[in-house]
Amino acid sequence: MTKNYSSIIDNNDTSASSISSIPALSVFSDIGTSLDEQRPLLTNSTVDSSVCSNVEVCFEEPSATIASAAINLSNTILGTGMLAMPAALACVGLIPGMLIILYAGTTSGIGLYFLARCAGKVGGRNASFSSLSKLTWPKLGIFFDMAIAIKCFGVAISYLIILGDLMPQVIRSFFHHADEVELLMDRRFWITLSIITAVGPLSYLRKLDSLKYTSLIALFAVAYLVVIVLYHYISPNFPPPPPESIEYFHFSTKIFSQLPVFIFAFTCHQNIFSVHNELQDNSERSIIKVIFSSIGSAAFIYEVVAVLGYLSFGKDVLGNIILMYPQSHFVAYGRLAIVILVIFSYPLQAHPCRASIDKIIDSFHQKNHLPQQQDVVIVNHTKRHLIVTTCIIVASYLVAITISQLDLVLSFVGSTGSTTISFILPGFFYLKLFREDGWNWKRCVALFLVVYGFMVMSICLTFNIKRLL
């Protein structure tokens, strides 16, 4: 689902505005890497890095509270991963699945804590992945941007898959004879139509702040999905699956292909910098409260959806839980809310993906740009905007019409981009910036996160590749 947070940008990054009712920081800067899992943090003016790199930064007084920060960070966490959670749990069994959700939430929270501590080393309220990379390994910034671009690209693909899966069922619910029209039941038709009419044109926009109001739909869709899952579980008219389809323990190698789904579901680390920069009191104690509240509430919702969804359908549950429920107007409105949500959410993933790709391209050409070539650079950036956006749209479209398994896409995104942002980078940053502390328990845990992140990436990515073959 679309997530949000108040706008915050450092002098190297372009973020996006959130829906938080509390305005925070607004600045002009380079195209950046401060991203939302589902929604980037947009400023009111998104400007090319070559044009605004020397613009003076100015801030408004931080005014976010612990409660507002926790709510916004929770909104960042609760996304498309929730739809795939019952299927992920089904692959490992009820008890292990419940424990893995708690474990994924705990490790994610530790990564958030390390990033928040590292943010304090930046100085002022300018923390971001880019600013931390400049303090630690400036030459590796390109790899950080690659991880963010991969994650945003994968989330964008998941939106198209969800749209293609849900629209035929929405049409079938509202039009009784829709089954007779084969075209209306073709997921590829709806993906293509959305790309041409809405998703594509909106993705070319530079100013996307007006789309922030769709977060209201995000909140509605999350709550509606929980109600749908709960209602069908307790309803006497909805028969439970046979007892043999419920497995309390199911140990197999499938856990390696599904673990990234759990990791993806808790990824919100790009927005911890917004929390640090915008909190009135951004002390360590306050940030720990925000992390505990947001991770805890998200874990509770995931447990409810995963457990009740699994108990409702057993091991035959699909990778997108909302596809499992019978046709009715009650379910149809929930599906329609998700469809509307993903249509407006896709452009907000294309935007930060394009921004990260821009920075990668700039890293290869920056040394060749002389001051007197500034006008040429601006023109090139305008052309690049069109070319890169087109490549993102076309590539995501081709993948979405080829692959229909939502959990498979989330597995790849979770084992690459999410793992890097959630574990590897927090661990690396903490090890580097707090090396004067010696090998205390925190730095040992940071090292564990780095090793764990690389292990998850290599092992789970291997299993997912084999899954395709």
TrEMBL record:
The keyword Mitochondrion does not apply. The chain crosses the membrane at residues 83-116, 137-162, 189-205, 217-235, 255-275, 287-310, 330-348, 386-406, 412-433, 445-465. The keyword Amino-acid biosynthesis does not apply. InterPro entries: AA_transpt_TM (IPR013057). It is a multi-pass membrane protein. One of its GO terms (molecular function) is L-glutamate transmembrane transporter activity. Keywords: Amino-acid transport, Membrane, Transmembrane, Transmembrane helix, Transport, Vacuole. Residues 64-462 form the Amino acid transporter transmembrane domain. Belongs to the amino acid/polyamine transporter 2 family. This is Amino acid transporter transmembrane domain-containing protein. It comes from Mucor circinelloides f. circinelloides (strain 1006PhL).
